[in-house]
Amino acid sequence: MRVKIADVARLANVGAGTVSRVLNGSRNVSPETREKVEACIRELGYMPNLVARGLAANRTGMISAIIPAIGYTQHAEVMQGLSDVLHENGIQLMIGHCGYSIEREEQIVTDFLERRPDAFYLTGAWHTPQTRRLIEASGLPVVECSNLTDNPIDSVVGYDNYEAARQMVHLLHRRGHRRMAIVTNAVEPNDRMADRLEGYLAASRELGLDMDDLVFRYQNSFLGGGEAVGHALNLPKPIDLLVCSTDVMAVGAIFECQRRGVSMPDQLAICGFDDLPIATSINPALTTVSVDRFEMGRQAGQVLLQRLAGEAAPHKKIDVGFTLRERQSTYAASTGGARPTIVPVETVPLI
Amino acid sequence: MRVKIADVARLANVGAGTVSRVLNGSRNVSPETREKVEACIRELGYMPNLVARGLAANRTGMISAIIPAIGYTQHAEVMQGLSDVLHENGIQLMIGHCGYSIEREEQIVTDFLERRPDAFYLTGAWHTPQTRRLIEASGLPVVECSNLTDNPIDSVVGYDNYEAARQMVHLLHRRGHRRMAIVTNAVEPNDRMADRLEGYLAASRELGLDMDDLVFRYQNSFLGGGEAVGHALNLPKPIDLLVCSTDVMAVGAIFECQRRGVSMPDQLAICGFDDLPIATSINPALTTVSVDRFEMGRQAGQVLLQRLAGEAAPHKKIDVGFTLRERQSTYAASTGGARPTIVPVETVPLI
DNA sequence: TCTTAAATTGGAAGCGCTTCCATATTGACT
DNA sequence: AGTCAATATGGAAGCGCTTCCAATTTAAGA
What we know:
Two copies of one chain form a homodimer.
Chain A: H1 5-12, H2 16-23, H3 31-44, H4 50-57, E1 62-67, H5 73-88, E2 92-97, H6 102-113, E3 119-123, H7 129-138, E4 142-146, E5 155-158, H8 161-174, E6 180-185, H9 191-206, E7 215-218, H10 222-233, E8 241-244, H11 247-260, E9 269-271, H12 278-281, E10 288-290, H13 293-308, E11 317-319, E12 322-325, E13 347-348
Parallel strand pairs in A: 1-2, 1-3, 3-4, 4-5, 5-11, 6-7, 6-8, 8-9
Antiparallel strand pairs in A: 10-12, 12-13
Helix pairs in contact in A: 1-2, 1-3, 2-3, 5-13, 6-7, 8-9, 10-11
Chain A binds a DNA duplex through residues 4-6, 9, 14-18, 20-21, 23-24, 27-30, 33, 48-58.
């Protein structure tokens, strides 16, 4: 807190600039000088002041990230991957949570800009016009973690939610499921959920299933999933598959079926989206869409690091792909429904 | 990014100091001047540079927080509460994750100190000597979120894990459970888990239950909880209650019992610790210890804000208390075990 | 009306660093 | 030896802000 570059410089009998060069690993320092300076740094227990560095160098070594909520597994995992990559490069994360509100996101962007981050990480590709304006005006590198939108601010990392939902419906249709409904979120709309719904509806149309009126909207929570089951069981014409837009709702649905003595997948099959850790533990294990979210975070980090290093590949788009995980909560191929085993299915590969 | 205080000052025809005083709400500015300056700020779209302010004022408006992992619900909830309180006061959080390693924690503290935070939030009260030395030398306010240790660095916010475990055992003993075992974590030891075990063993001794050899160690995960059930069912002398040190393990245990057709709570009762959202949804609903973690975060934030405001009540200790939640995974009073209903139980009140 | 204290204000001096420029030194070729 | 480029180095000039001090203005008493 007290010893500064000037003190080190004085002790080492060199100029402040030289100490700075040693600290920043500049090539233009003789080995002897470097060693001498490093010894003095150790002797004095010098600790750089990154605030001062940030001001002088116009580079803070901080990256702003905005996610819906800190406690949501999906986003937390991405943050962990992102943070790991950045940490290795001496960069810290500044995390804000906007609770799925793009107005709140705008506020956070405004606040964060005052702290002069070197880059931005945003969740989703839906923002207020002002958010987009602010960020574009700042000229900072940005990565949006989302669908692979065609109109990104800068770069996007993500996977195709639409296609994942679409493929899931096709797969389960091949497995014998015929009449299905989807549960999507009633509040906090966002682009990823919207795309999942679109993909589902597209598949439904392709298969001629006529399920347009079977879109349930409940809160994205265990409770919401449970309520959807209640609704589903009261339908005049029963369904045999409930497609949940998130694993959280799917888990809630499974619990509700257990409570009501509904057998899965025979009486009602259930699938989810996200492949949370619980999806493999629950009974029956949950058929769902799996994405490597740590990897998403790491990729996002890599993109930002490249951007910061000046490699300006405009509009980079990174597809981390997804995998359909077929488990016991839906019929699997060739088992007639009893204790189905996992069957390998097609995957959208990395581009 | 470009307009600075000097520009505002020039336009408003005042000194830079005056603009600064307006920005920081100093009392010594005439209303007319203030208004004029504010108009110019708006006109130019001036946005303060908090990096420069941090350097000049020796106050960054950032607080460092270190938690085991971003994605663990317990800690994420605390962060959310903390972040909310700080945000209202224009303070940002700098979050690092140490993965339960105090060596890694030390590294993060070292890194964070270079960014000159105004305060620290630490998880737990177990740190390396060097961590403690560094933080004490920095003279910054600290709050540890943990047990209510008697030897805090500065302030502590938390609840009594020992007492919670102890009371849980006493309660379940009154409900008729006699032979029990505890599952605790095999890796990543930490003070809170240790205290829970201690409390459990203390109660066991008080009740003369002789359960010292029934301490299982498994990974703190769904899988670990499941394995513990496997172990428990193979005991020569069967147990009737499995006390899990975390809800995650308890949920894993419940799933495993479902898979094995073990009826709960009749054949095996299960209780947990943390009261995660899933505890109320799962079948049977999980008896557990509940703590308001958002509130813990908010309290931690309040303490830090007070400290920053200069109110130096040394060694503040804040007990947020806990509540035993009795649910269907254990016998409840007066029901003989069948579909027990929730019974109000004693709570350790806020101090 | 004259003092004196309080309220305002301008402006300079940093905060601790990076970076540019000028200078000094070295070494490789002629 | 002499030349020129490459390599090292010191040091000053900021980066954009806060804050202190001195100066000025205003208000309040006497």
